[in-house]
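Q: Structure for this?
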Amino acid sequence: MMAESFEVAIVGAGVCGANIARRLSAYEIAVALMDKEADVSFGVSKANSGIVHGGFHHNKKHLKARLEIQGAMMFDRLKTELGFPFVRCGIVVVALHEDEMRAVEQLYAQGVDNGAIGIEMCSRERMLELEPKLSRDALGGLYAPGGGIVEPYRFVFSLVESAVKNGVSVFTGWDIVAAEREGDAWILHAADGRQLRARYAVNCAGLAADEVSRMFGAEDFSIKGRKGEYYLLDKLTKAKPGRVVFPVPTSVSKGMLIVPTVEGTVLIGPTASAVEDKEDAATTRLQLETILRSARNMIPDISEADVITSFAGIRPTLGDDYYIDLSAKVPALVQVAGIQSPGLTASPAIGEYVKDLLKKAGLVLVEKANWDPTVERESRARDLSLFELDELIARDPAYGEVVCRCECVTEAEIVAAIRRGHTTLDGIKYYTRAQMGRCQGGFCTYKIVKILMRETGMSCDQITKRGRASTLLRGVL
Amino acid sequence: MREMSFDCVVIGGGAAGMAAALELEARDLSVAIAEREERLGGILTQCIHNGFGLIEFNEELTGPEFAERFEERIGGRRISVFCGCTVLDMVADEGEQVLSCVSAKEGALRLRSRAVILAMGCRERNRGNVRIPGSRPAGVFTAGLAQRLVNVEGYVPGREVVIIGSGDIGLIMARRMSWIGCKVHAVVEILPYPSGLTRNIVQCLHDFDIPLYLSHLTTGIYGRDRVEGIEVAPIENAALMMGKAFKIPCDTVLLSVGLVPENELSREAGVSINPMTNGAWTDSTLMTSLPGIFACGNVLHVHDLVDYVVEEARRAGRCAAAWLEGARPCREARVKAGSNVRYVVPARVDTGRDNKLYLRTMIVKNDAILEVRIDGKVLLSSRKNHVQPSEMLTLTLGKAQLAAAAELPDAAVEISIQ
C-alpha cells in the first residue's frame, strides 16, 4: 500500500497539536494532524479549567512560564481571527489568612518580574470591591487583569478548522501503533492498518506521549496522570464571580478555583490526585465534597443545588517543566510532552516554538501567499436579536427549531456541527453546547440522535457518545 | 416579524396549559397557547401506560388518550395554538407581557397579552444534580428520556438495566423495560421509603420480581465506553456503610431521582421562586409575584396525578379571567408549612371564599392528624389513614373556617401533620 506523504505529521489533535498544525498551515508544506479519538480535542484538552493564566504563577526560569507569558498575549489576535469564545475577565487570588498574604506577595513579585500587565496587590476592601461575592474572611490578595477565560474545545475546533481551511489533513480515529524510519522519512502505522509517510513528526500525544516516544525509538520517559475533578454550576447560580477566583497555590497545584465560564456557567475545581490508570477519569465522592468545601471558603453562596454536572480530566505530568525539543536520539522528531497547566495558555506559543524547532531541524518554510487566518462562524441563535433571528429563519427554517432549550441551540447549529465532522454526541455537545446545560441532554438527546441519523445515514446503533464502543442505543423495538 | 395581541397567552400546551386555556376561552377571552413541541399534550404523549383520568373522566386512560380528549376540546374552540414555538423570553411592557418566540413555521414572533399563564411543566433531575460520582460512559439516561426513546422513537436504550431512584417514571420504566425483554436488576433508593406511588411499587416492581434496595446510596457508576455497572452501599443509622458496598453489573442506568419545575423563563422575568417547591410563590389566585402572571401544573409544584394538574390549571384559568375582568382578592392570609409538612401551595388563602390547598408531608405515617391552626389556635383537625411524601394531600379551607384569620391583621394559617 502506498502511504500518503506529508512534510510534517502531528500525532495528537489536542490544543498543542491544533496550534502547531494551524501555525504550519501558513507555509507551503503538506501537514497531517492525527488523533486516536473520534474527534479532535477529545483528550486532555476537553476537560480543564479553560483559563488564560495571569503570568504570575510560574518563575520564568522555566520554559513553561516563558511560553505562558508569550501565549497569553496571542489570544486577542487569535480570537479576532477565529472567533472562539474568549474573554479577558481578569484573575484574583484570594488570601484568607496572614500567611497566605505572604504567599500572595511572592506571586506579585513573580508577576511583576514576568511582566504581567496591570498586576496589583489588593487590600481587603479592594478585593471585596472587585468581587463582592467573596467571603467576608478575605484578607486581601492579588489582581491580574490580563487573565481570562476560554472555551477550550471551541478553541481547538477553531484552530483545526483554520488549519483545514489552509490545507492541513486531519485524521480522526487514527490510533498510532508504530513508527519506522524509511530513508529520510517516518512511516507511521495506525491500529486499523492506515499508514502515512512524513519527513518530520511531532509527538504531542498528551497522556500517551511517553508511549509514542517509544514507538519512534526516541527518549524513554514516563508521563504520569494527575486527575482533576470539577463541578459545573447552572447559569442561574447566585455565586457567579466576575473574575476567575484562585486560592493561594500549594506546592503541587494552583488549587481549586472558581471560574465564571465564557458561556455563563460556573466551574469549580480541580482537585489534583495522582492516578495509575491514565484513562481513569472517574469522579469520586470524597474529592467532589472537597471541591464544594474549598469553593465555599472563598464564595459562601456556592450551593450544591446549582450543580448540573461533574467531570474529571487527566493532566499529563512530567517533572517540573515542559519537554519541548528535538529528539536527541532519533532524527526529525519534535517532542512536546508534559504539557500540564498552563498548557492551554502556552499553546499558541508552543505552536510558534515547535515551528522554529522544525526549521532548526531543516524543514524549509516558505510562506503561503494566500494563507487565510480567518474562519467564518455560523450564527448562534442565542447571540441574535429577534429581528436577526426572524431573517435567518426565513432563509433557513431550521433556525426556528430550538433543539436544546437550556442553551438555546437550534437544529441549524446542530446540522452545521455535523457537517463540520462532529458526528458523536459529545462532539456535537462541545461544538454547539446542546446537552451541556441544566438538563444535561434529558430533553434533546433523542432529537440530536434523529438529526444525526438523518444527516449522516448512520443507523441508531452506530450513534456513539464519543466514538469507540460508547454506543448509545441497543437496537430497535 | 409578526406581532399579535391576546388577552392571555398560556406558555406550554400540556395538560395544564390546555385546561387553563379552555377556561379562559369559555369566558370569551382571546387566548393563545405557545407549545415548543410539534403537538399538544406535553409529557403525556410518551406515557403510554394507563392510570390517567380516574378523577377527570372517571375511567382509566393512557397518557396519549388523556391528552387527546383535551386536544379535541381545544380544536373546537377559538384558541390560537402555536406548536413548534419556543418562548425565548418574557418582559413587561406598559402593563402588558411581551413574549419573544421562534418557530420554524412562523419565524420570530412577538405575543403580547395582559395576562400570562405559566404551564411549562417540569424536567427530570439528572446525574449531576444528585452528584453520582464515577466515570461518564454512554448508557446513563434519565427515566423520561428512556421512556421517550422506547415509547415514541422505538429504540432499545439497553438490555441489562438498573434504576437509580424510585420515582414514578422510574417505576413505570422498570415495568416497560421488562416488557420489551430487558432485565431490570434493581431499583436503588436512597430514602428508607419509595419515592413513587404505592400502586406503582406493586404493579411495576412486585409483579415483576424486581428488587428494591431502600436506604442505599449509589456510590459510583463505572465503565469506560459503555456502562458496566454501578456500586451501591447501604445507609445504616444515617451513616454510609462503605464496608458493605457491592456492585451490580448492568449496561444501562436509568435515573428517576426527582422532578424540578422548569422555571428559568419565569426566574429571568423576575418571578419569585419558593425554594421548597422550585415553583413560583403565588397568592390565593395562583398569581405569581408579578401582576398578571399566573402559574399552574408541574411548573408550580410537581404533582403526582394529571387529574390534580387539570384541577389546578382550571383554577388558574378562572382566576386569570377574573383578574382580566378587574377582580382582585380582597383579603388574604399567609399559609405556613408547619411540623412535618414540606410545603403548601398556594402560599396564601383568600379569607372571603373557599380555598383548595395542596400539600406534601415529609413523613411516612399511619393514622396521622392533619392540623390547621391560626395563631396557635386549632382551627381544624382531621385524621388521615396514611400519609407519605409521594402522595400529595389536599385540603379545602372555607370562608367560615377562615373567619378568625380575616380579623387578625397579619394572620398565618399553619398546617402541620402529627
